[in-house]
Request: fold
Amino acid sequence: MTAPVGRFAPTPSGRMHLGNVFAALIAWLSVRSRNGHLVLRMEDLDTQRTSAEFAETLRQDLLWLGLDWDLETAPQSQRSSVYDQYFQQLADLGLLYPCYCTRSQLHSVNAPHLSDGTYVYPGTCRNLTLEDRTAKNRTPSWRVKVPDRIWTVEDLCQGRYVENLTTDCGDFVVRRADGVYVYQLAVTVDDGEAGVTEVVRGTDLLSSAPRQMYLQELFGFSHPDYGHVPLLLAPDGRRLSKRDMDLDLGQLRLRLKPEQLIGSLAFSAGLMEKAEPVSTRELAAEFRWEKLKKDSICLQANDLF
Ligand SMILES: [Zn+2]
Reply:
């Protein structure tokens, strides 16, 4: 068996919060426990919110935690000419079409909505004539046509997840009207070109996996293994976010040693029997996906609050 290749793909828009730290920890443990490699990549498609300073702080924070990597690949903001080539592949396959729908049209009450609040694109612009398109007189986004087919994710943490892109998502945007490529395309290209074999991230991204698997097939990449880790909740049950300044790494580093933080997370997640300080290296020796809790994890460490 060849060594696995995992990745960290943080967005450099601020300090990491504990949820980001947790996903990075599991990504690191899963790969390092099998002597695999890790790739770091900055997901800075949103150049308004991200910066090189935040990226450098992220690197320092990961190293402080004991989460190292073997290679850093180019940030997404520098790769639009690469994404252009993959976009052209989709165009050559006849799978792209321009979409002129406005935001309010897409979110109108008539649009079919799923239980999680996302909408299914009903294919409004799929069959526009050239005449129709010219008459729109606005810059379109570009959507990829999806097949009527079942996609199955055998998730390392969540188990089996099944989706039909036609009924659960619809044709999806790969390039926005302002020319920026969307997350789904950029992630698929970056992971594929870096030879990533294992994608570990928060469970809020589980429903992205089928879209990425579809693009992987079109681009000729193998499917990676997926592990979507649970959300972290504060002891009172509220969801952690970047707004919780008290739980971002800038504050936590002032109060805690990295081993205390890693130990608290590992205990809360079911990876340790007792809450005690531990290094990432020590934890890697014991790591098994089966130990990890699948549902939302309530932090059980009072010293963090
Ligand atoms: Zn449209």
Residues 59 and 68 are 9 Å apart (CA to CA). The radius of gyration is 20 Å. The chain has a mean pLDDT of 92.
